[in-house]
């Protein structure tokens, strides 16, 4: 049986040999000269739905039959795959997206590189393998994600030109929001997510899909600070909305890409409290933040919002950002610790209860704020 390791494992193996931080993980195998029936006879277990993929009976690694594909409809679902014993390794590699992902390795460690992937690895270039790249719009997002993962790599001019053609022809319009979300999330988890944004802007994808979502220096700075602070991807989505005018626009954008309810809620609330959060210099500012963020019922989210503010807005929170965060956390504790039931019992008119409870919380915050100023 002719088997070859392909894809990311080979790419990252070669990069690590040159001193890159990339480390090869799971191996993907391509099998040449076999059929589904012969694989099953060898003890492999079929698992692929769209095309023949099998699990090794001992290692449980994935083995896919060499295949070609033919475009039959717009978008990224419109393909017919052909997997047969006569499909060669070179034909299988030709259908892949980038030359750096189209390198195969034998079990003995020899490399097979029919499309110049090793050359492009050394030159740090992301280049499409063939014009078939244009048939799958997901590859625009994948390439942008690779640019974020490998920030020293440039995009080959002919590949950028091809992506622009894909955008202008409307091919990229077929991408569903869920697929865009998945690729954006992966890109935001990379070392330099702004590189992903650079590529999506350069090829016209971002302007065509999200023309009303600016990606200026403030957005990139917020993303950079998220990376430096190790903030999770959900907060990095909030950073994407840095330059939007208000919470309504934030919600519209994140909902349009099918972001999770928690991600939308966090970013929307952040935008709502952004002004008092940046201005946070008094107990009154803290009260405004707590009220607008529904801190009493969503205390965990409030803590995350404070963390984001201290990491991403340090220039507006001032040089005492850490001390200020401790002060606001003490104020939050005071806000939440007021016994509303006890306050209610002191009121003879039920209509006065709500304002009495609010006043008690405000007094508690002022006291905590004043106490922490001297500590």
From TrEMBL:
Question: Can you tell me which residues the record assigns to a coiled coil?
Answer: none
The record places domain Poly A polymerase head at 3-127
Enumerate the Pfam families for this protein.
PolyA_pol, PolyA_pol_RNAbd
Q: Which residues form the tRNA nucleotidyltransferase/poly(A) polymerase RNA and SrmB- binding domain?
A: 153-205
Q: Per its UniProt record, what InterPro entries does this chain match? A: CCA_bact, NT_sf, PolA_pol_head_dom, PolyA_RNA-bd, tRNA_CCA-adding_enzyme
SUPFAM superfamilies xref list: Nucleotidyltransferase (SSF81301), Poly A polymerase C-terminal region-like (SSF81891)
Cofactor(s) recorded for this entry are: Mg(2+)
Record keywords: ATP-binding, Magnesium, Metal-binding, Nucleotide-binding, Nucleotidyltransferase, RNA repair, RNA-binding, Transferase, tRNA processing
List the PANTHER family hit by this protein, alphabetically: MULTIFUNCTIONAL CCA PROTEIN (PTHR47545)
Q: Which family does it belong to?
A: Belongs to the tRNA nucleotidyltransferase/poly(A) polymerase family.
- Protein name per UniProt: CCA-adding protein
**Organism of origin:** Sutterella massiliensis
């Amino acid at each position: 049986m002719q088997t070859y390791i392909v894809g990311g494992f080979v790419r990252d193996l070669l990069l690590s040999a040159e001193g890159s931080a990339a480390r090869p993980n799971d191996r993907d195998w391509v099998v040449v000269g076999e059929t589904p029936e012969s694989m099953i006879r060898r003890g492999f277990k079929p698992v692929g739905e769209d095309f023949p993929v099998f699990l090794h009976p001992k290692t449980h690694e994935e083995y896919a039959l060499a295949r070609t594909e033919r475009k039959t409809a717009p978008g990224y679902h419109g393909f017919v795959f052909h997997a047969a014993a006569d499909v060669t390794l070179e034909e299988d590699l030709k259908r892949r997206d980038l030359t750096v992902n189209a390198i195969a390795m034998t079990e003995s460690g020899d490399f097979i590189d029919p499309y110049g992937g090793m050359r492009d690895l050394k030159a740090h270039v992301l280049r499409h393998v063939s014009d078939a790249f244009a048939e799958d719009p997901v590859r625009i997002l994948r390439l942008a994600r690779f640019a974020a993962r490998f920030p020293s790599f440039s995009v080959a001019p002919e590949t950028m030109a091809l992506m622009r053609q894909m955008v202008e022809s409307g091919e990229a319009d077929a991408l569903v929001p869920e697929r865009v979300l998945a690729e954006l999330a992966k890109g935001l988890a990379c070392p330099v997510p702004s590189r992903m944004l650079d590529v999506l802007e350069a090829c016209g994808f971002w302007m065509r899909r999200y023309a009303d979502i600016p990606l200026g220096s403030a957005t990139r700075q917020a993303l950079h600070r998220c990376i430096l602070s190790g903030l999770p991807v959900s907060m990095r989505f909030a950073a994407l909305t840095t330059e939007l005018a208000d919470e309504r626009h934030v919600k519209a954008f994140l909902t349009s890409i099918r972001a999770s309810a928690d991600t939308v809620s966090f970013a929307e609330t952040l935008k709502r409290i952004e002004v008092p959060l940046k201005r946070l210099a008094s107990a009154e500012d803290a009260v405004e933040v707590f009220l607008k963020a529904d801190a009493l019922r969503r205390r965990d989210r409030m803590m995350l919002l404070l963390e984001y503010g201290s990491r991403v807005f340090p220039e507006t929170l001032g040089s005492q950002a850490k001390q200020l965060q401790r002060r606001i956390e003490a104020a939050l504790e005071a806000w939440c610790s007021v016994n509303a039931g006890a306050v209610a019992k002191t009121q003879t008119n039920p209509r006065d209860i709500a304002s009495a409870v609010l006043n008690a919380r405000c007094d508690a915050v002022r006291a905590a704020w004043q106490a922490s100023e001297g500590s």
